Amino acid sequence: MRMTFYKYQGTGNDFIIVDNRLSQIDKNNTKRIAELCDRRFGIGADGFILLENDTSSDFKMVYYNADGNESTMCGNGGRCIVAFAKFLGLIATKTEFLAIDGLHNASIEGDVVHLQMQNVSSIEVYDKHLYLDTGSPHHIEVVDDLETLDVKTIGAQIRYGKPYNENGSNVNFVKQLSYNWFAVRTYERGVEDETLSCGTGVTAVALAMHNISKTSQNEVVLQTQGGELKVRFKENTNGYEDIWLIGPAVQVYKGEIEW
Ligand SMILES: N[C@@H](CCC[C@H](N)C(=O)O)C(=O)O
């Protein structure tokens, strides 16, 4: 079968997105999804996303990592699928859609997408790192040598090491640039490499840095390798709510390939 796909990127985190409202894609074909995401033998992407019908919201997002396995929430992918839904004429400027971690509100103006993330009630603070789940699991370390750090090697050691083991965690390295500005580099589970940006990752970094008083601001700017993102949030007695991931989502091209 010939499959029409769209390539999107959100601060350099890139995705193959397919309109699967007619259920033409075999969702268990891990091998084919991994082949399509391969940067030498396929289209090349950090992830593969299906847009599907949902009975109680505008659409459903099904997310796969580049290894072909369905995974947990993708923040940049979530922003890209909102732009795709607008391109398809499914939504105007506001939407509510379903992802693996529940319903998300979002809005789009130009190419900037505001995506609401789930509330966060637990942040684990350790001597040298923090851990929290923003729809996907995130290990966070503050470092001085962010520019020269071997993110792939050190990220992989942490991702496969204790306590995460096979199930793994994404790993974020952070350097503070000013009172509300942080540079972030992320090793992504399922891509098993550094990506240019990770939406759930920068969300986790913003909340974690606020939690350990590195910033007192409720809007934090995150500098990723692929561009700038913002995270807005409110603190409550339980943790954080009203969390918004804000940044551009861009269609790169449309293509056709054998599924
Ligand atoms: N790129 C993503 C995160 C995708 C999921 C992650 N690789 C995992 O499996 O946990 C983002 O923008 O949030």
UniProtKB/TrEMBL annotation:
Give the annotated active site.
74 (proton donor), 74, 198 (proton acceptor)
In the UniProt record, the signal sequence range is: none
Keyword Transcription regulation assigned to the entry: answer is no
* Subcellular location, principal: cytoplasm
Pfam families xrefs: DAP_epimerase
Q: Where is this site: Could be important to modulate the pK values of the two catalytic cysteine residues?
A: 138, 188
HAMAP family in UniProt: DAP_epimerase
- Identify this protein by name: Diaminopimelate epimerase
Which species is listed as the source?
Answer: Winogradskyella aquimaris
Organism classification: Bacteria, Pseudomonadati, Bacteroidota, Flavobacteriia, Flavobacteriales
